[in-house]
């Protein structure tokens, strides 16, 4: 897919860059695989706002994407590639030999009419799903399970993939996009290929209205608030400097490590690459 730019007839179109979706399915989604999706407006089950500046947005239906891919040893044909408003990559509708339809994440370079399979010792082909122990070292994979049978959890967004760096007993060494190397059970399933829509990262919204369509409300900077409302607030005139940047609750906003899961520390072989902050 290519990027779309616009002539600067207005101030918003001057900077707008969108993804050209030519070639995607233009009709409605497969009816039996969608369900209503209620907007939570950034609130939890008690109605308290837990994610600020979220509300409104266009109505969406949830596509029931199968991340488990447990329908083994049966060929499926890709019927169409679709846009999904609930995720950044595209999805594909596949039809199995027994007539059942499923939604899967769509990798790059897959086309309508291609066939895919799930199961052990299948062909190393884009779209096929198999255990990590059957995939050669260095192959790009996505939708990787953390535990066998737990469903794909890793590499599910647009243009992402991970690769197998080697074997360590019953575990495969998975190299993440961040540079982290992690051990995952070799019986866990993964799908061959890099996910679709890599140009998602190059989109420029262009105007505030498009953010509202996506459910994002206007954001007020902390430095223009009062001290009672934000740690950055207060002061005489414009006093943006002299403070350590923090969130409204006081948590550091620049590189503070918040991971606290000692149960899974033993599976991390190498930590992710350190971020180089520009001075």
Q: Rough shape?
A: globular
* Sheet with the most strands, sense and barrel status: 7 strands, antiparallel
The proportion of residues forming helix, as a percent range, comes to under 10%
Indicate the CATH architecture of the domain at 19-39 and 57-200 and 263-270: Roll
Q: Count up the helices.
A: 2
Provide structural commentary.
The protein has a domain at 19-39 and 57-200 and 263-270: SH3 type barrels (Roll). It is 4% helix and 24% strand. The protein has 2 helices and 17 strands. A hairpin with a 5-residue loop joins strand 14 (171-175) and strand 15 (181-185).
Topology:
Elements: E1 3-5, H1 11-15, E2 17-19, E3 34-36, E4 61-63, E5 76-82, E6 91-96, E7 101-105, E8 115-116, E9 129-131, E10 140-142, E11 144-145, E12 152-154, E13 162-168, E14 171-175, E15 181-185, E16 189-192, H2 208-213, E17 268-270
Antiparallel strand pairs: 1-2, 3-4, 5-6, 5-8, 6-7, 9-16, 10-13, 10-16, 11-12, 13-14, 14-15, 15-17
Q: What distinguishing features does this structure have?
A:
279 residues; mainly beta; SH3 type barrels; 7-stranded antiparallel β-sheet; 4-stranded antiparallel β-sheet
Question: Would you kindly provide a brief summary of this structure?
Answer:
With 279 residues, this protein is mainly beta. The protein has two helices and 17 strands.
């Amino acid at each position: 897919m290519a990027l779309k730019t616009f002539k600067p007839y207005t101030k918003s179109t001057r900077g707008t860059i969108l993804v050209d979706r030519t070639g995607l399915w233009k009709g409605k989604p497969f009816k039996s695989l969608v369900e209503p999706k209620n907007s939570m407006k950034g609130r939890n089950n008690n109605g308290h706002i837990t994610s600020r500046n979220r509300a409104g947005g266009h109505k969406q239906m949830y596509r029931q994407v199968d991340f488990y891919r447990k329908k083994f040893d049966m060929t499926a044909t890709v019927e169409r590639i679709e846009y999904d408003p609930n995720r950044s990559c595209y999805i594909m509708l596949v039809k199995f030999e027994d007539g059942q339809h499923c939604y899967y994440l769509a990798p790059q370079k897959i086309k309508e009419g291609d066939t895919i399979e799930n199961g052990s010792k299948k062909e190393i082909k884009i779209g096929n799903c198999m255990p990590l122990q059957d995939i050669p070292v260095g192959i790009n994979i996505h939708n990787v399970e953390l535990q066998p049978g737990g469903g794909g959890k890793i590499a599910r967004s647009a243009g992402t993939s991970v690769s197998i760096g080697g074997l360590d007993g019953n575990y495969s060494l998975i190299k993440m996009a961040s540079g982290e190397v992690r051990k995952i059970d070799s019986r866990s399933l993964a799908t061959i290929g890099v996910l679709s829509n890599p140009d998602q990262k190059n989109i420029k919204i262009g105007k505030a209205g498009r953010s509202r369509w996506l459910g994002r409300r206007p954001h007020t900077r902390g430095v223009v608030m009062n001290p009672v409302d934000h740690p950055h607030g207060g002061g005489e005139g414009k006093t943006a400097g002299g403070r350590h940047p923090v969130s409204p609750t006081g948590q550091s906003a620049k590189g503070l490590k918040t991971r606290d899961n000692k149960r899974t520390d033993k599976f991390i072989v190498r930590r992710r690459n350190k971020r180089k902050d520009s001075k």
